[in-house]
Amino acid sequence: MSLDLPLLREHTPGCQGRIHLNNAGASLVPFPVQQTVLDYLALEQEIGGYEAEEQRAEEMDSVYSSLARLIGAAPQEIAVTQNATRAWDMIFYGLKLRSGDRIVTCRAEYASNYIAFLQRCRQTGAEIVVVDDQPDGTLCCESLARILDERVKLVAINHMPTNSGLIQPAAEIGRVAQEHGAFFLLDACQSVGQIPLDVAELGCDALTSTSRKYLRGPRGVGFLYLKEKHLSYFEPPMLDLHAATWTSSDQYKLREDARRFETYEIFTAGKLGLGAAAEYALEVGLEAGWQRIHRLAETARDSLSQLSGVKVRDPGALRSGIVTFTVEGRDPQEVKAQLRQAGINVWTSTVRSARMDMEARGLSEVVRASIHYYNLEEEVEALVSQVAGMAR
Ligand SMILES: *Cc1c(COP(=O)(O)O)cnc(C)c1O
């Protein structure tokens, strides 16, 4: 399995003019995906939005099978949403919680998820339990196993945090959760499109993700997976006339499939683009893509860590394409701005996106260079040499 790099870069016009290392923010959208979105918008302009949807109904439907194939699910287990956050919310806010119930999570949990935990704990009297990390920063599965009892209503973990190269041992977490009968919700925002994923292997009950990050789809769309066995009882926290049918004046009936988590209105062109992005990722090959991302990211870490005054800030044993670092005496924002001037897109991550993790490591902000398979060895070298110029 190998990648046709010249073709992949030809599909990615943005990489001609700059070095894009902000793939954890939003990846560059490849031509075939972009074309799907633009063609559909043109069709809407020409024949009307509802008429376009009707005409392309089959293609619209195949979005579910593409996403299902991407993560080893069945099409009826997939819903398309406006982003990953709302996908996650539809599961999280749909879980029944009472006083004394427990939500189990990791120290590196994403801010939006943690804020939602805090809100619901205030409303219900449920509690949050944060599992200890191992020395390498990954969640300790033995500690998790000790915590899991009948009070635990949810294990919610993000697979790859936004603010470091950490990869959580999701499959092992899934196995422990399953053994104890706990509901496991996996936030796979940064891992979908980056690494091969299979929901059966991960042992998750639900998984949520976004289109624009490593999957290389358009912005403004996301999706969720909910395991079929939960569909028979799991009520979304909100419904509309697409999620349910108003069957008589005082009755409604939920949709049978996971689309009960959707709303009628969605960015339809983006939905088709998301499906196209899933097909594109499958065609490129997730294993080959991941091998390259991993190699490039480790090269970047090796080279950056050799610069005096530069510290690589990625915990974990096996690390993702997200490379984070600090430069002594330089504000991460300043590093980002200077790199932009040199034609290199990076981003920064602040304590606000993952407070417990950043505080525990004494960090308020880091520079984040997130690498994709379409990046080149020379681009990584260019990053390193620019950072070398800033370090003392
Ligand atoms: C980006 C991100 C999210 C939120 O995704 P949206 O599509 O912006 O809603 C959630 N979790 C993690 C780990 C992320 O990196």
How would the blueprint of this fold be written?
Blueprint: H1 5-10, H2 14-17, E1 19-20, H3 31-47, H4 49-55, H5 57-71, E2 78-81, H6 84-92, E3 102-106, H7 111-124, E4 127-131, H8 141-147, E5 152-158, H9 170-179, E6 184-187, H10 199-202, E7 206-210, E8 222-226, H11 228-231, E9 244-248, E10 251-254, H12 268-284, H13 286-305, E11 310-312, E12 322-327, H14 332-341, E13 344-345, E14 347-350, H15 355-360, E15 365-370, H16 377-390
Parallel strand pairs: 1-13, 3-4, 3-5, 5-6, 6-7
Antiparallel strand pairs: 2-8, 7-8, 9-10, 11-12, 12-15, 14-15
Helix pairs in contact: 3-4, 3-12, 5-12, 13-16
The structure holds pyridoxal-5'-phosphate.
Q: What's a concise summary of this model?
A:
The chain has 392 residues and is an alpha/beta fold. It has 16 helices and 15 strands. The longest helix is centred in the last third of the chain and has 20 residues, at 286-305.
Description of the structure:
By secondary structure, the protein is of the alpha/beta class. It is 42% helix and 17% strand. It has 16 helices and 15 strands. The chain has helices at 5-10, 14-17, 31-47, 49-55, 57-71, 84-92, 111-124, 141-147, 170-179, 199-202, 228-231, 268-284, 286-305, 332-341, 355-360, 377-390, and strands at 19-20, 78-81, 102-106, 127-131, 152-158, 184-187, 206-210, 222-226, 244-248, 251-254, 310-312, 322-327, 344-345, 347-350, 365-370. The chain has a 7-stranded mixed beta sheet, with helices on both faces. Pyridoxal-5'-phosphate binds next to helix 6.
